[in-house]
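Hi F.,

I've been meaning to write this up properly since the lab meeting, where we talked about keeping a consistent format for the predictions we share between groups. The idea is simple: the sequence comes first, exactly as it goes in, then the structure tokens exactly as they come out, then a line or two of notes. No screenshots and no reformatting. I'm using this chain as the first example so we have something concrete to point to.
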Amino acid sequence: MDSLNGLLIFTVLGFSAFSLWWSLNTLKQLAFTHATRRCKESGVQILDSSISLKRLWLRRNSRGRFSLWTQHEFEFSSTGARRYRGTVVMLGKRIDSIDLEPHQISHED
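Output, unedited:
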């Protein structure tokens, strides 16, 4: 009976870990889509086609329910000569903020 309980606990923990990984991957893809859109609107180029998760927390959303709060970072360039950092903060699937580090504006003639 002990091995059956161990197997059940292992299965539940494995499913929970997979579910968390799936949720974080979905949020990361959503954050990347929004970061790419913001960079395009701002006339800058997102670099490396990537975004990374920097912080993860549980917070209450506007309905009082716990949601994953995530902070993602990405790099962008305005002139191609220097890298700048941007951040996307999300509460669940909702974008809380997208910030671009102060950067040099490209002057194209």
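Notes:
The beta strands are 45-46, 52-60, 66-77, 84-91, 94-100.
The helical segments are 2-42.

If this format works for you, I'll send the rest the same way.

G.
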